[in-house]
């Protein structure tokens, strides 16, 4: 189902149910060489009003195509959303080396989380833990180590004051982005700041800009670190007109805001679903014990862990952390859901509604990982946790690897129980991200495999 709203001279189309095949002419089936880079352009004014410095990242032109491909190469899965095979082959060796480094970062941060949990449950008794903050610390450290080679959470934090400022900024951004603003939906009211929210957001954007510029300048003075910022600075030397400081900061901000809270929230939902379905948790644990054994899960094991992958897919279907896909705008007239859609219409896709559409899914509100085991490859037009087509999230491969490694390690290394007899409350709170209203608290106890691993190897995090 689609609904077309008319607000003054601006049209909004909301896709809420049914297959998205009708979007194919403007979003799918295009080779990278043939793309109309103005088609389905994301709404720069809306993004800029919400987050400030993102506009340089979203305004793609033909001359900036390499910028998008570089991001996809660094952070995407092998398919890379339509990037040509020749491009993949040229960068294959560099990509492999970078992925090996990123795996080391992910592995060390997951080990840090395991040690933290082991510290409160190592005496053979169950201990209550609050997981939301721990998972956020994990994902934030992974992203920051990739971007700037820094850890801001947990032990071994060297830049204490810098870490404090960063945490403060991230907390304020989470609060600001969650606020609904009438001017975002009614352009006539954009100039009115009823609550002072936009002034606060502008101050915060400038604060973040100063922080990010400091990171860029620091890397400009130290080019030996193998980080994303240094890689972009190298590209800046070759193409300064494209890789400006604003573009680099925009990319960093996209990763921080899009890759930390979302992955952590998705893992929180997954653990809540598992504890509400102990038979699923038991089956996942049995698969890990059979396929991995008495060593810690590696990313090379992922292909064998079909049920774990199905759990992650089913969790993304039932609890998409971005329930409303970021808006798009077609540059030419088209027809969607029987509606004539003029050029310039703002297109919203309600992923949560599509994922729970009974015409597309059997028992859509039930948590059933088996649906992904039996269905094989799911139709891309009905499963869109990371968006669709050329504008899909380029970090989906990274997010899936982080979630699989983390959830697999937590299931493998700990026994988990609910705090009480009642099922975990799955009440949702939706802003830009769909949260659990109550942070997840669980009882955990280390399994013998974890004691053995730590006794064999005292890894330095």
Automatic annotation (TrEMBL):
Residues engaged in binding heme: 393
InterPro entries membership: Cyt_P450, Cyt_P450_CS, Cyt_P450_E_grp-I, Cyt_P450_sf, Plant_Cytochrome_P450_Monoox
Localisation: Membrane
The keyword Secreted is assigned to this record: no
Topology in membrane: Single-pass membrane protein
Highest taxon in the source lineage: Eukaryota
Pfam families: p450 (PF00067)
Family matches, as PANTHER family: CYTOCHROME P450 82C3-RELATED, CYTOCHROME P450, FAMILY 81, SUBFAMILY D, POLYPEPTIDE 5
Name by which UniProt lists this protein: Cytochrome P450 family protein
Organism name: Populus alba x Populus x berolinensis
């Amino acid at each position: 189902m689609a609904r077309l709203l008319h607000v003054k001279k601006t049209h909004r189309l909301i896709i809420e149910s049914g297959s998205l095949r009708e979007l194919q002419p403007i979003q799918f089936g295009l080779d990278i060489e043939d793309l109309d880079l103005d088609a389905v352009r994301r709404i720069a004014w809306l993004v800029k009003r919400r987050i400030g410095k993102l506009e340089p990242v979203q305004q793609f032109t033909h001359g900036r195509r390499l910028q998008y491909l570089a991001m996809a190469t660094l952070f995407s899965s092998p398919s890379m959303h339509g990037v040509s095979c020749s491009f993949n082959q040229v960068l294959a060796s560099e990509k492999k080396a970078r992925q090996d480094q990123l795996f080391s970062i992910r592995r060390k941060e997951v080990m840090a989380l395991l040690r933290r949990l082991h510290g409160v449950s190592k005496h053979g008794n169950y201990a209550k833990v609050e997981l939301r903050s721990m998972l956020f610390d994990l994902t934030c450290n992974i992203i920051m180590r990739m971007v700037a080679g820094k850890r801001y959470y947990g032990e071994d934090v060297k830049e204490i004051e810098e870490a404090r400022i960063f945490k403060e900024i991230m907390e304020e951004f989470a609060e600001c982005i969650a606020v609904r603003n009438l001017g975002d939906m009614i352009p006539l009211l954009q100039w009115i700041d009823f609550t002072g929210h936009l002034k606060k957001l502008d101050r915060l954007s400038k604060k973040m800009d100063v922080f990010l510029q400091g990171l860029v300048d620091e890397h400009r003075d130290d080019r030996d670190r193998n980080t994303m910022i240094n890689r972009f600075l190298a590209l800046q030397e070759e193409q300064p007109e494209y890789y400006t400081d604003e573009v680099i900061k925009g990319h960093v901000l996209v990763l921080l805001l899009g890759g930390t809270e979302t992955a952590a929230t998705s893992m929180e939902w997954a653990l809540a679903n598992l504890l509400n379905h102990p038979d699923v948790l038991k089956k996942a644990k049995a698969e890990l014990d059979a396929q991995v054994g008495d060593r810690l899960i590696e990313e090379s094991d992922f292909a064998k862990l079909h049920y774990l992958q199905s759990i992650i897919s089913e969790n993304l279907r039932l609890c998409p952390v971005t329930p409303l896909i970021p808006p798009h705008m077609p540059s030419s007239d088209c027809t969607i859901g029987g509606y004539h859609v003029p050029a310039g219409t703002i297109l919203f896709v309600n992923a949560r509604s599509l994922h729970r559409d009974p015409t597309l899914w059997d028992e859509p509100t039930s948590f059933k990982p088996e649906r992904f085991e039996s269905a094989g490859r799911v139709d891309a037009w009905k499963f869109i946790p990371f968006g669709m087509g050329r504008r899909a999230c380029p970090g989906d491969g990274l997010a899936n690897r982080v979630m699989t490694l983390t959830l697999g390690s937590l299931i493998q290394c700990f026994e988990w129980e609910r705090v009480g007899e009642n099922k975990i409350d799955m009440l949702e709170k939706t802003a830009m991200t769909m949260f659990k209203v109550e942070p997840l608290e669980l009882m955990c106890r280390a399994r013998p495999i974890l004691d053995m691993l730590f006794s064999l190897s005292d890894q330095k995090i």
